[in-house]
Specification:
The chain contains no helices and five strands. The chain is mainly β. The protein has a domain of 39 residues. A three-stranded antiparallel sheet has the order 2-3-4, with no helix packed on it. A two-stranded antiparallel ribbon has the order 1-5. A hairpin with a 5-residue loop joins strand 3 and strand 4. It binds zinc ion. Zinc ion (ZN) binds next to loops.
């Protein structure tokens, strides 16, 4: 049984929004930002402890 689930969220280093998609990640390992169009492997990664009965905030 796990104590708490850790969720990692990746942020765009340019506009700092957590809207990164995988961009051909299996080939390039890069991420794509839907907001500013940034594509690259350098991202800001932050870890959160996920509450048990609610999902992490997501931007649609
Ligand atoms: Zn961006």
């Amino acid at each position: 049984m796990k104590k708490s689930e850790e969720v990692k969220i990746k942020y765009c280093p340019k506009c700092r929004t957590p809207n990164l998609d995988m961009y051909a990640a299996s080939i390039t390992g890069a991420y794509y930002c839907r907001k500013c169009g940034y594509i690259g492997t350098v991202v800001i990664e932050k870890s959160f402890n996920k509450p048990k009965s609610s999902s992490p905030p997501q931007h649609e």
